[in-house]
Amino acid sequence: MVRGVRRVVSRCRDFTAEALADWGWIPAGSEAGEERVEDVLLLVSEVVTNACLHAGGPEEFVLRRGREGVRVEVADASSEPPRPHAPRSPALPGGHGLMVLDRLAGAWGYEVRGPGAAGKVVWLEVSLPSRP
């Protein structure tokens, strides 16, 4: 359970980095594996930051390891779906989170939370790093 916005992004990133290391996502001598880990950490930062900015912070953060990769889930209390901002210059800060998800995640989306829980879950999936 994750509540609030204070240091939540760094806590979720740290948790993710530890889990990926435990799961062997950082093969010795593999830059590709390290780059994929950085992709996952950036994606975690994006979805957790969006929950902070648009929904009062995440309520739950879940990592699921699968045979093909990892799934990240961030639950929040807002029922508003993620919406892209109007196109803007990449040189301007902010408003690029969903573009980052589109480019780095294998798949992503959102689901309305089940009975008894208000809000939604934003999820993303990232494939395993390729082995040399």
Furnish the topology, listing elements before pairings:
Elements: H1 8-22, H2 31-55, E1 60-65, E2 69-76, H3 97-104, E3 107-112, E4 120-127
Question: What can you see in these coordinates?
Answer:
The protein is an alpha+beta fold and 132 residues long. It has one domain: Heat Shock Protein 90 (2-Layer Sandwich), CATH 3.30.565.10. The chain has helices at residues 8-22, 31-55, 97-104, and strands at 60-65, 69-76, 107-112, 120-127. Strands 1-2-4-3 form a four-stranded antiparallel β-sheet, covered by helices on one side. α1 packs antiparallel against α2 (31-55) and α2 packs antiparallel against α3. It is globular. Keywords: ATP-binding, Kinase, Nucleotide-binding, Serine/threonine-protein kinase, Transferase. This is ATP-binding protein. Pfam families: HATPase_c_2. Residues 28-124 form the Histidine kinase/HSP90-like ATPase domain. It comes from Streptomyces cinereoruber.
Kindly summarize this structure in a few lines.
This is ATP-binding protein. With 132 residues, this protein is of the alpha+beta class.
Sheet with the most strands: spatial strand order: 1-2-4-3
Structure class: alpha+beta
Unreliable residue stretches = none
Overall pLDDT confidence: 84
Distance between the termini: 37 Å
Which architecture per CATH? 2-Layer Sandwich
Instruction: Based on Cα principal axes, name the global outline.
Output: globular
The strand count comes to 4
Protein name: ATP-binding protein
Keywords: ATP-binding, Kinase, Nucleotide-binding, Serine/threonine-protein kinase, Transferase
Organism: Streptomyces cinereoruber
Pfam families: HATPase_c_2
